[in-house]
Amino acid sequence: MDLDAVRALLDRQLRRAAPPDSAAAQVERTGGVVRQTGGPTDWNGILWSELTEATADAAIAAQVRHFAALDREFEWTVYAHDRPADLAARLRAAGFQPEPAETLMVAEVAGLPKEVELPPDVRLLPVTDPAGVELLVRVHEEVFGAPGGRLRDRLLARLAADPDALALTVVMAADEPVSGARLEWVPGTDFAGLWGGGTLSAWRGRGIYRALIAHRARLAAERGVRYLRVDASDQSRPILRRLGFAELSTATPYLHRP
């Protein structure tokens, strides 16, 4: 891969010209930023910015006012290649709180393994209804230690409005969910996103995470997707690198709460 070219393509398709990710959300360009504004359970935040040292503070203040008027928490993810160079410091000064940094990684779907090899005592379960969403949310809460209410509402809304926009999967050991992940299509782009991959600690090291990557790569290939992107944690980055993913940038989410 030409990493510079892929980075530029991703910035153009998934940030500067990103489509809204739900029927209730709106994407607009204003004041040097591209933002998505949605309902309380939607993702709200800044997708892209073209700021300078002279314009950054005013743009940040304008976005804080916009989302505060709606009583919305919102996210501004800062990529290592974003400008100005001190954007993160300016966000902190404006009251944003950083979340753990992740690594933006991308792979060509054609080069990824697609054979799903699971331990003999587990199985894949496609999620297509509220009962399956509950299983996926249980995994999310146990693995990431975060409340799953907003994720539950978002997934239920998307399944009801456009079930073909995402593929949700849980890994079951008998009747217990032990891992889960989702694949989200981005219409009109060359990319699909890998999200939420997590496995209960007692089940790690058995190839489940790798199997979920292969499963989603196969689904992406069937839909003609060229690239998969993922925001990788320190734990998943080595596995993804071995599978063929390359690092494009680092990404640090900054949250602002009303």
TrEMBL record:
Pfam families membership:
Acetyltransf_1
**Could you name the domain of life of the organism this protein comes from?**
Bacteria
SUPFAM superfamilies annotated for this entry? Answer: Acyl-CoA N-acyltransferases (Nat)
InterPro entries (UniProt xref):
Acyl_CoA_acyltransferase (IPR016181), GNAT_dom (IPR000182)
- Name the keywords, alphabetized: Transferase
Every copy of the N-acetyltransferase domain together lies at 122-258
Database matches in Gene3D superfamilies:
3.40.630.30
User: What's a single GO MF annotation on this record?
Assistant: acyltransferase activity, transferring groups other than amino-acyl groups
This protein is called what? Answer: N-acetyltransferase
- To which species is this protein native? Streptomyces kasugaensis
